[in-house]
């Protein structure tokens, strides 16, 4: 149980770092054809000059879903920290809360990344654009979120149930 909680907490923390770096950097798409132009969720930079990214609907949706994912993941990390103190409310334990919020964070992240990928794949397939490291970092964060959620679910299942039944 302790091993699952530690793996879950480390995975959640790594996922949060990867997610924040991916969201805040602007190397989601890089255009190698017209000089080095790169864009993220917030701005487009070309030859050292950066401008604010126009608010297309898919960009707004991706931003919102990734921010919600970050909030869920933060709550999952807090729940994960509580799991070391055997915190529970009835049969609802801290590892279970962490697992639920991490699964929710992963779902929001997968939906947000799918929207972005679906709307920009034509630029990658037909032009000189390529996805870059910020984009891939968010996908890696998804894997860490799912791993953490499963680890916390295993910790919950290994935890004895609170209450008089365990006496």
Automatic annotation (TrEMBL):
<dbReference type="InterPro" id="IPR050579">
    <property type="entry name" value="PMP-22/EMP/MP20-like"/>
</dbReference>
<dbReference type="Pfam" id="PF00822">
    <property type="entry name" value="PMP22_Claudin"/>
</dbReference>
<feature type="transmembrane region" description="Helical">
    <location>
        <begin position="64"/>
        <end position="84"/>
    </location>
</feature>
<dbReference type="InterPro" id="IPR004031">
    <property type="entry name" value="PMP22/EMP/MP20/Claudin"/>
</dbReference>
<keyword id="KW-0472">Membrane</keyword>
<feature type="transmembrane region" description="Helical">
    <location>
        <begin position="7"/>
        <end position="30"/>
    </location>
</feature>
<feature type="transmembrane region" description="Helical">
    <location>
        <begin position="96"/>
        <end position="118"/>
    </location>
</feature>
<feature type="transmembrane region" description="Helical">
    <location>
        <begin position="133"/>
        <end position="155"/>
    </location>
</feature>
<dbReference type="GO" id="GO:0005886">
    <property type="term" value="C:plasma membrane"/>
</dbReference>
<keyword id="KW-1133">Transmembrane helix</keyword>
<keyword id="KW-0812">Transmembrane</keyword>
<protein>
    <submittedName>
        <fullName>Uncharacterized protein</fullName>
    </submittedName>
</protein>
């Amino acid at each position: 149980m302790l091993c699952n909680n530690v793996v879950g907490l480390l995975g959640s923390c790594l996922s949060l770092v990867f997610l924040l770096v991916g969201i805040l950097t602007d190397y989601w798409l890089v255009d190698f054809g017209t000089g080095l132009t790169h864009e993220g969720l917030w701005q487009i930079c070309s030859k050292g000059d950066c401008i604010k990214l126009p608010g297309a609907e898919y960009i707004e949706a991706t931003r919102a879903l990734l921010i919600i994912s970050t909030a869920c993941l933060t709550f999952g990390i807090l729940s994960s920290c509580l799991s070391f103190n055997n915190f529970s409310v009835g049969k609802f334990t801290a590892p279970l809360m962490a697992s639920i919020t991490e699964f929710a964070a992963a779902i929001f992240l997968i939906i947000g990344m799918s929207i972005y990928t679906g709307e920009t794949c034509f630029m990658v397939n037909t032009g000189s654009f390529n996805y870059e490291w910020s984009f891939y970092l968010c996908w890696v964060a998804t894997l860490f979120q799912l791993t953490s959620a499963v680890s916390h679910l295993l910790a919950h299942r290994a935890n004895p149930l609170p209450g008089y039944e365990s006496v």
